[in-house]
Amino acid sequence: MILLVSLPIGTPPQTQQMILDTGSQLSWIQCHKKVPRKPPPSSVFDPSLSSSFSVLPCNHPLCKPRIPDFTLPTSCDQNRLCHYSYFYADGTLAEGNLVREKITFSRSQSTPPLILGCAEESRDDKGILGMNLGRLSFASQAKITKFSYCVPTRQVRPGLAPTGSFYLGENPNSGGFQYISLLTFPQSQRMPNLDPMAYTVAMQGIRIGNKKLNIPISAFRPGPSGAGQTMIDSGSEFTYLVDEAYNKVREEVVRLVGPKLKKGYVYGGVSDMCFDGNAVEIGRLIGNMVFEFDKGVEIVVEKERVLADVGGGVHCVGMGRSEMLGAASNIIGNFHQQNTWVEFDLANRRVGLGKADCSRSV
Q1: What is the DSSP string of 142-184?
Q2: Which residues form the Peptidase A1 domain (predicted)?
Q3: What distance in Å separates the CA atoms of residue 47 and residue 136, rounded to the nearest whole number?
Q4: Which of 253, 292, 289 is nearest to 271 (CA)?
Q5: Is 21 tagged catalytic?
Q6: Were 324 and a residue from 22, 124, 193, 270 both cysteine, which residue would form a disulfide, CB within 3.0 to 4.6 Å?
Q7: Residue 233 catalytic?
């Protein structure tokens, strides 16, 4: 599942579908290609129709490589424009030019021109709304100090995409939120496997049913190389755990429902806890799954939502091994954020969590 936000971009505004991604920095939109090589994507942005659009020239400071917190490979193209190419963790490639453009919410409300990618080559027909802590993320550039979203439950009826909620600024529901602190990393603490721009939290442990798994707390904290960082990522569907934690989860799942496991099957190359049988019954046998944080704050995944429907009658525990992604961190994906308000309070460096029925419009 991806979290899609429709944003009005340019002057006059053109609506762009963008994937909300708290795990990445650069926002980018799908730009118009004059000669379509394949059928054109459903919602492309045509720069020639916007009076506020401008391109970033090669001599712009951003086009100089290796700015400390902007790891995007940029170069000069033949038109003396600033070209970028970016590989996401899942292998998706996006490339195009860096540009400036406004987000126009209404006649009286718009952002100043923000630096965005204008993607000409990408496999997806949607843009990305980069919302991490980097200085070029949408949140940083637009000076948004707080935002929140509510992930609806997976679709019940085929063809009906569920609708959640997204707030920029104050959330009227925040009175009931519980907060956990964000961990921050000074420049001196930069480590090869650490993403200092991610929303890093101090996870304490995992429970399945009533059993607290025997996972050392160090598995959820960045070690000397940065491995073990735990982050909340709206752009990842499954949750990914380092081997030390994943193996304990799998051990307990095997203890509870081992004979029902789909033998020798690995979904997407990352998850080997999958089943052919009755998902409701298997979920009931596994029980609730709980992610524990400091101050007693928890994300509770009810037994009805422990398994993800991956198609073909197969259901998997919505977790994968980070190592198979080539990552060394724990990533709490949106599958485990269903029916939860997740608020990123940047001014106070904290994340708020609150139970909700996200499928109902608010």
Answers
A1: TT--EEEEEBPPPPSSTT-----EEEES--TTGGG-EEEEEE-
A2: 3-354
A3: 21
A4: 253
A5: yes
A6: 270
A7: yes
